[in-house]
Specification:
The protein contains 11 helices and 9 strands. By secondary structure, it is α+β, with helices and mostly antiparallel strands. A hairpin with a 2-residue loop joins strand 8 and strand 9. The relative contact order is 0.12. The radius of gyration is 21 Å and the shape is globular. The protein has 3 domains: 121 residues, Butyryl-Coa Dehydrogenase, subunit A, domain 1 (Orthogonal Bundle); 109 residues, Butyryl-CoA Dehydrogenase, subunit A, domain 2 (Beta Barrel), CATH 2.40.110; 145 residues, Up-down Bundle (Butyryl-CoA Dehydrogenase, subunit A, domain 3). A 4-stranded antiparallel beta sheet has the order 2-3-7-6, covered by helices on one side.
Length: 395
Amino acid sequence: MSHSTTNTSDVLDLDSLLNTDELELRQRVRDFADQRIRPNIARWYEDAVFPRELPAELGELGVLGMHLEGYGCPGRTAVEYGLAAMELEAGDSGIRTFVSVQGSLAMTAIHRWGSEDQKLEWLPRMAAGEVVGSFALTEPTAGSDPSSMASFARRDGEGSDAGWVLDGSKRWIGLASIADVMVVWANTEDGIRGFLIPAGTPGVTVTPIGSKLSMRASIQCDVEFDGVRLGPEALLPGADGLRGPFTCLNEARYGIAWGAMGAARDCYESALEYARSRMQFGKPLASYQLTQEKLVNMHLEIQKGTMLALHLGRLKDAGRLRPEQISAGKLNNVREAIAIAREARTILGGNGITLDYPPLRHANNLESVRTYEGTDEVHLLVLGNHLTGIPAFRG
């Protein structure tokens, strides 16, 4: 069922802040979500399936690496990317996560830090969805603190022809089991560097993580590297230190600020529709003051969060977006989206715990969104550091 927004769902007339291209792009992605995600997502979620045909369809839609220029990438604005993320996550966080891992993480790493040969080899096919990418940063013992990663790549040989031997473990790596290429971050004698590892490379073992209560229509994996031999061409030459992965993480965090509001809007609209038609004590739920208060509070937070995301997008397109501003957007909008999903569920009553309605599925997914690309605590500390001038990450 489509829950496309109506005028009553935009009290502040935020649509008037968007230009024609932005509105057309949003409608195109919204139509895709209505046609391809909504009719299938309950089954995909329940069966824990990520449909393999979606990457090519998303490539055709033009949302893979859509903020990147050249090499077959769409070259759209930050606001347009945000609007696409919002509409995809209104369908499901797992589908938006695919777009984020592919474009904001893996493709951005290659586009920003790769050699010309690496860009030409991978980016056009990734933008088309013909090739799936993965981004391996998090480790079993290094989540919020990537500087303590234990994965290590040692030099193998001498001179410019020297390769690498990689050992280590990664966890919660999106798409790794279906990826054609993996961007892997590891310590070296010269600090943290990035490597491109094609699928099928000997010594790489990928194990999908099962028994998930969240992101069930998405793929996350454990990855082991055991004496993996890499040629000199595997190194991302431009990435040196944590600035490499953090640049990519900021791209993903930006998209999340938009995406979370899509999930929140879908929850709100399903609750509103239900409240209008569900009869209790002889009249619709929507006619009760307590229900109207819930709907108003949800709507206000969605409008404020969308306005925040749009402001961040305009700053990004102007080249002025700062990391602490991204943290503000990610922290606020995901936190509010979870609260909205849970409140929407209360309007649905017992029916709300089923996959016939989206709020509890969104709430479960958003627990993952809340954790990845920086937990609430990490973004609170980023903002605390900005406000006080005192970094409090280490006690």
